[in-house]
Design a protein that fits this description.
single chain; alpha+beta; 244 residues
């Protein structure tokens, strides 16, 4: 397993670094990458440096991003294939166009008849290999255009189901209309689709109201940098030694 790096000098970022970073809520994954890239470029006094991440988190989500720099960006494809673990919250009694709280709730239905037994009886339907339809508000390409761009234009979109695996899906707490969960899943899995599909199975509708990525493979969010602390640590490095 590749190990996260402990950089000691500016030039380490050009050689290659793996950084575990906790994404703040409201930030896109690209926002975080751009922030780190700018800090490194400023410290190195270079115009370009390769920086990328191993898997997108939606703006409303928090949790683990793996960021690689320099030559280590070649490992991003391998890292993208690792399983993921999440904790989150599903709100039942409505759906949203985006399958999360980025859009306004609609199609309200009563949920007061739901019992713990009814909810837990549906969990086994979301275990193991399955075909999952991604949200239309996603970056998946349809005829060469990102699906979310077509959806924003009001176009009708039909995305093909994708083969994914749910290694485990557990409802941890129920406080209707909300329920907290954790899920361990394969690459290509959309937790927003899980929330939407689970609500559909309950007959009440549902959407994702909170999400945190806790692990990518064996890499854990507990070992991740706070973004502000990472930027401060990069800024505190000695300036690179100029060749004489």
């Amino acid at each position: 397993m590749m190990r996260p790096s402990k950089f000691q000098k500016c030039e380490d970022f050009q050689t290659g670094q793996m950084l575990l970073v906790e994404k703040p809520i409201g930030w896109t994954s690209f926002d975080v990458v751009n922030k780190v890239r700018f800090a490194i470029k400023h410290k190195l006094k270079v115009r370009k440096i390769k920086v990328g991440h191993s898997g997108t988190l939606d703006p409303m989500a928090t949790g683990l991003l793996i960021i690689c720099t320099g030559k280590w960006t070649k490992a991003l494809h391998e890292l993208q294939g690792l399983d993921k673990e999440y904790t989150g919250e599903i709100t039942v009694g409505a759906t949203t166009a985006t399958y999360d709280k980025e859009a306004l709730p609609e199609n309200q239905k009563s949920y007061t008849h739901l019992t713990q037994e009814m909810i837990l009886s549906k969990v086994d339907d979301f275990q193991g290999p399955l075909n999952q339809v991604p949200p239309i508000f996603s970056a998946i390409k349809k005829d060469g255009v990102a699906a979310y761009q077509l959806a924003r234009r009001g176009k009708e979109i039909e995305l093909e189901p994708r083969a994914v695996v749910i290694h485990s899906f557990v409802i941890e707490q129920i406080d209707l209309p909300k329920m907290s969960f954790n899920v361990h899943c394969s690459k290509g899995f959309y937790v927003r689709s899980l929330a939407n599909d689970f609500g559909h199975e309950l007959g009440t509708g549902g959407y994702l109201s909170a999400l945190r990525r806790t692990a990518i493979g064996a890499y854990r969010v507990e070992d991740a940098w706070n973004l502000d602390d990472l930027i401060q640590s990069i800024d505190a490095l000695d300036a690179p030694v100029e060749a004489s």
